[in-house]
Design brief:
This protein is mainly α. The protein is globular, with a radius of gyration of 22 Å.
């Protein structure tokens, strides 16, 4: 009898709290994912600005495109280098605190830029403040939320959260382009600052750090007690880097993702609008094309998440990079003063592929590095942004030196072919050690 009582007591200890056994109609994980989606949109608002402001800043202050590109490259590099530390800080201090502070920092940098008069101020406000802020809400944020709150549908949720950045572009690019065209660049910068601040209350009120905070199991999984806050966040982040850096897949993932960043954020997001403007296209028309990329980016990324749950992530990456490289090689021939059908086809095609690489890359990080995957992905994302930073700067220099962006389009297309080959040589983890996706 005593053994029976002790056994029952042990079973009770292993059971989740009563709240965890009540299944709400809509799992709280989807509410947290929705808040994450809105937060990334708010943080991504600033990413709509650099390409729109290169010509206005060049005209007003006389700064070279290389100088302006350097400020953008600092922002992109810090965005990437902050991400892995942000993932560890979320483990230590919680998601809500880190993200609320990051949104405030983005707003401060965007607002302070209204009063700048020198290029070094541009590098401080755009580069340092906004880079640190947006880096803390980077894709590692989405990875942390996905890993904690979801067991089933991880690929799909990753695709949806990745598409949030494109959704922000869809919302803010046409708006900011119209503001710049009608009222100047300063009101556009203020608009971005306000967009970041508006999201803060949603984060504070609705975001939760862990399913156990509300007595729930992760979506599609078993109840797990909330772990104690992880101390030594920075040390852990660097330790994970050194551990991952001793493996071949890390360098292949980092290399392919660096090319991904170079051919998207560094190239198209930063230089497409001024390049189109060089060919006589109005800024508002070019910005609208980028917004259309955002529409199809949402579709392509969510579909990519669905595919990642079902197919080999390495082969998906190879296909994505190969198609992107081919499209970039044709872009110089499509530029002109008017929006014609071939350019529309490019925009749709490129939009579907824009960040479709994220779900399979994150899946490979999860497959290779398990519990450390969010931090490893943060470092892989750092390489993405370093690649973007290099091309954001060199693209501006190339325009100053050659008078056009053509050489940058061709070089990026060739790099995408290299990334496709690198994706195929990433080794597989033994089937016995790979977690089978649920659902």
């Amino acid at each position: 009898m005593t053994e029976t009582i002790e056994s029952a007591a042990q079973d009770d200890d292993r059971r989740p709290p009563l709240e965890a056994r009540r299944r709400p109609r809509v799992h709280r994980a989807w509410i947290v994912a929705a808040v994450t989606f809105v937060t990334i949109i708010g943080g991504a608002a600033f990413n709509s600005l650099p390409g729109l402001l290169i010509d206005p800043l060049h005209t007003e202050f006389g700064w070279s495109r290389g100088e302006i590109g350097l400020a953008v490259s600092i922002d992109m590099a810090l965005y990437g280098l902050t991400a892995p530390f942000a993932a560890a800080l979320m483990d230590r201090f919680g998601i809500r605190r880190v993200v609320a502070a990051a949104l405030t920092m983005v707003a401060a940098g965007a607002l302070a830029s209204v009063w700048m008069t020198a290029s070094w101020q541009l590098m401080i406000y755009w580069g340092l403040l906004v880079g640190l802020g947006t880096g803390s809400m980077a894709m590692a944020f989405a990875a942390t939320v996905t890993n904690r709150w979801f067991v089933a549908r991880r690929g799909l949720v990753t695709g949806i959260l990745t598409a949030a950045g494109a959704s922000g572009q869809l919302v803010f690019l046409p708006l900011c382009a119209w503001i710049v065209d009608e009222h100047g660049w300063r009101p556009a910068s203020v608009t971005v600052a306000l967009a970041a601040l508006v999201v803060v209350p949603f984060v504070c009120l609705l975001m939760r750090d862990h399913p156990a905070d509300v007595g729930l199991a992760p979506y599609g999984g078993a109840y797990v007690a909330k772990p104690a806050p992880a101390r030594g966040a920075a040390r852990r982040t660097v330790k994970v880097l050194f551990k991952a850096a001793r493996t071949g897949p890390f360098w292949l993932l980092a290399g392919t993702f660096a090319i991904c960043g170079a051919s998207t954020n560094g190239l198209i997001r930063t230089h497409f609008v001024p390049s189109a403007h060089d060919h006589g296209m109005p800024i508002t028309a070019a910005a609208s094309l980028l917004a259309v990329i955002g529409i199809f980016d949402v579709i392509g990324t969510i579909f990519s998440g669905w595919l990642t749950d079902r197919f080999d992530a390495r082969r998906l990456l190879a296909v994505y990079y190969a198609l992107r490289g081919i499209s970039l090689l044709f872009l110089p021939m499509l530029m002109g003063p008017d929006v014609r059908p071939p350019m529309v086809f490019f925009i749709v095609f490129y939009g579907l592929d824009w960040v479709a690489t994220v779900p399979p890359t994150l899946a490979l990080c999860r497959e290779q590095y398990g519990e450390d995957s969010a931090i490893v992905f943060g470092w892989v994302l750092a390489s993405h942004q370093v690649g973007a930073a290099v091309v954001a700067f060199l693209g501006g220099v190339a325009r100053d030196v050659f008078g056009s962006y053509d050489v940058v389009w061709y070089a990026s297309g060739a790099l995408c072919a290299v990334a496709a080959l690198m994706s195929l040589v990433i080794r597989r983890v033994r089937a016995s050690s790979v977690a089978v996706p649920s659902g």
